[in-house]
Structures are given as structure tokens and as C-alpha cells.
Amino acid sequence: MVIYSFYIFDRHTECIYSKSWIPPSEMPQPPPSTAPPPPPGTSHNDPKTTALPDRTRSSQKHPRSAQTKASDDAKLIFGTVFSLRNMVRKLGGDDDAFISYRTAQYKLHYYETASCLRYVMLTDTTAPSMRNVLHQIYINLWVEYVVKNPLSPVEHKGGVGVRNELFELGLDQFVRGLN
Amino acid sequence: MTVFALIIINKAGGLIYNRTFHEGGLNKLSTNDYLVLAGTFHGVHAITTRLNPVKIERPSTAASSGPGGAPILTRPDPPSGLEVLESENFRLQCFTTLTGTKFLLFTDTTQANISVIMGRVYEMYSDYVMKNPFYQLEMPIRCDMFDRKLSSHIREINNK
């Protein structure tokens, strides 16, 4: 069993924690950009382009840097689990819960707490149900190291208070112990 | 061992067939909700193919060589989208044909051999829908033979 990555989303749909255990050499290659580069010279005089903030311009220079790709992936994953969860609740009733889905390449596991925190884990296809694992992460790591941390804010906007040393270390050890 | 329902989605994401075999397994939705569900699933399915976290291994061309000794250039399988979805109350198996039509089979969580049932459903679709001269491609399926054969086959499974 291989664990690829792990995400936590808060109730404001924001990704407050993400971690990947895939070495960069095994990441899928980004598809070659099909859009032709803008003709030179036009951008210099265009006031709209010069008004762009620095961040946007640098991201255009490197179309898919690792960080943008990670945050894009997190958004896509949230959209997917959100839609599937709503679909499952519509069909199976309000007490039904979305557990996991599998494609030919990977398996995605989902766990939602009563406070609308959403835990998502991507593994290979042979992995058994990871629902209890995600539950354990919630009980033993999240509650212990994030909720009980007196310096941690109530809302983790931008991931504040989640990326502390104890939580990171505990999560890494726990996941490595599973393999 | 119960098969709850079958939904067929055409390659554009439109609902073309919707049939419930077992009352009480899934909530009853309005036709409009089923259309929304089909469209949503179509979109989510496309996203799940893009979320693939690992690189697809390229099969080595040296191992397989053609009759003339020239290597056969094989193309790796494209990443597949969602195949099985599990929830507490049901299991959803999705089968995508090469032309992009999706078959969604809803069963209870203990149902075994879903791929066999799916293969049989696809066979019936090819026999009684595709070979029906009055059927227009990508349009809702209204074929009596398909309805009849499908219900008798699923009834057999549900009564086992």
C-alpha cells in the first residue's frame, strides 16, 4: 500500500493543510501548453498587462510551478469530494456518507467530522478502507496537537496553527508506520 | 445482493436512460434532479482523471518488437476516471465505453460480481439499443426490448 497525499479542508472550503509523499521525480508531467505565447511587443504598451500584480506575471512566466499545481490540485480535489458527497447524500439519504472512490490509477478516501472538517487521502488502488485511519488522524493528531494547542486560532485561515512541528511530525510518523 | 438502479449517460453528459429496479434502496429523485446528477457526475468524472497523483509508466518498447524487428510503439492507457464509488448505503460502479458513454450501476454494498452484471448490461445495450434502427444516437433510450430484457435479467439477480 502506498499513500500519495493528504489534505484537510475547513468548513469555509479552504485547504488548510496538504502534504504529499510522492517524490518529485514521480509526479505526472504537466501537459505541454497549447496556447501560443503572446506576440512580443504587444504587452509592453498594454496598460492592463502592466497593471497586473507581480504574482500573476511570475506565474505566467512559469505556467505551472509546483506550488500552483499543488494548490490547483487541492481545489480540484475539494470540488470533487464536495460534489460526490452531495450526490451521495441526495441518493442515499441524509445519514449516508461518502467513503471513497477508486479509479484505475489511485483511490481517494474521505472522512468528514461533525464540525465540517474534511479529510482526504490519496492512496494506490490496493489500499483497504482508510476511514478509520483518517478518524485516527483526527482524534490523535488534530485534536491533540491543533485543537488543544492554546496558541492555535479557532479558524485556521491560510493554514495558521495547523503546520506546527508536533502535528507534522506525528502525521509523518503515523503515515510511514502504515506502509 | 441487490441492484438498485441503472443510469446511462451519453458522451456529452446528458441522461439518456434511468431505471430503478428496487424500491427503497435509493431516494426517489425528480427527473430534473436525475438530469442534474448525470451532468454533475460527468464533470466530476472528468476531474477525477486529471487528479492522477503519479506518473503513468511508459511500457518499454524494447520488450515488444514487431515481426520485422521494429519496435511496436505502444501508447499507454489514458488515465481512467472514477470506476467505483463507495458510500455507507450503496456502491456505484461506473463503466465507460470507448465512445464515452457511461453506465452507472447502483448496488448495495455487499453485491459481488458487478463487472459481470455490467458486461451483460452493455451487451444488452449493444444488442437491443444500438441495433435498433429507430434509435437515434445520443438521444434518450426508448426501446421496449431493452427494457424487458434488462428487467428480467436484474430481477433474476435480485431474487437470488
Automatic annotation (TrEMBL), chain A:
<dbReference type="InterPro" id="IPR011012">
    <property type="entry name" value="Longin-like_dom_sf"/>
</dbReference>
<dbReference type="GO" id="GO:0005783">
    <property type="term" value="C:endoplasmic reticulum"/>
</dbReference>
<dbReference type="Pfam" id="PF04099">
    <property type="entry name" value="Sybindin"/>
</dbReference>
<comment type="similarity">
    <text>Belongs to the TRAPP small subunits family. BET5 subfamily.</text>
</comment>
<feature type="region of interest" description="Disordered">
    <location>
        <begin position="22"/>
        <end position="71"/>
    </location>
</feature>
<dbReference type="GO" id="GO:0006888">
    <property type="term" value="P:endoplasmic reticulum to Golgi vesicle-mediated transport"/>
</dbReference>
<feature type="compositionally biased region" description="Pro residues">
    <location>
        <begin position="25"/>
        <end position="41"/>
    </location>
</feature>
<keyword id="KW-0931">ER-Golgi transport</keyword>
<dbReference type="InterPro" id="IPR007233">
    <property type="entry name" value="TRAPPC"/>
</dbReference>
<protein>
    <recommendedName>
        <fullName>Trafficking protein particle complex subunit</fullName>
    </recommendedName>
</protein>
<comment type="subunit">
    <text>Part of the multisubunit transport protein particle (TRAPP) complex.</text>
</comment>
<keyword id="KW-0256">Endoplasmic reticulum</keyword>
<dbReference type="GO" id="GO:0030008">
    <property type="term" value="C:TRAPP complex"/>
</dbReference>
<dbReference type="GO" id="GO:0005794">
    <property type="term" value="C:Golgi apparatus"/>
</dbReference>
<keyword id="KW-0333">Golgi apparatus</keyword>
<keyword id="KW-0813">Transport</keyword>
Automatic annotation (TrEMBL), chain B:
<dbReference type="InterPro" id="IPR011012">
    <property type="entry name" value="Longin-like_dom_sf"/>
</dbReference>
<keyword id="KW-0931">ER-Golgi transport</keyword>
<dbReference type="GO" id="GO:0005794">
    <property type="term" value="C:Golgi apparatus"/>
</dbReference>
<dbReference type="GO" id="GO:0030008">
    <property type="term" value="C:TRAPP complex"/>
</dbReference>
<dbReference type="InterPro" id="IPR007233">
    <property type="entry name" value="TRAPPC"/>
</dbReference>
<keyword id="KW-0256">Endoplasmic reticulum</keyword>
<keyword id="KW-0333">Golgi apparatus</keyword>
<dbReference type="Pfam" id="PF04099">
    <property type="entry name" value="Sybindin"/>
</dbReference>
<dbReference type="GO" id="GO:0005783">
    <property type="term" value="C:endoplasmic reticulum"/>
</dbReference>
<dbReference type="GO" id="GO:0006888">
    <property type="term" value="P:endoplasmic reticulum to Golgi vesicle-mediated transport"/>
</dbReference>
<protein>
    <recommendedName>
        <fullName>Trafficking protein particle complex subunit</fullName>
    </recommendedName>
</protein>
<comment type="subunit">
    <text>Part of the multisubunit transport protein particle (TRAPP) complex.</text>
</comment>
<keyword id="KW-0813">Transport</keyword>
<comment type="similarity">
    <text>Belongs to the TRAPP small subunits family. TRAPPC4 subfamily.</text>
</comment>
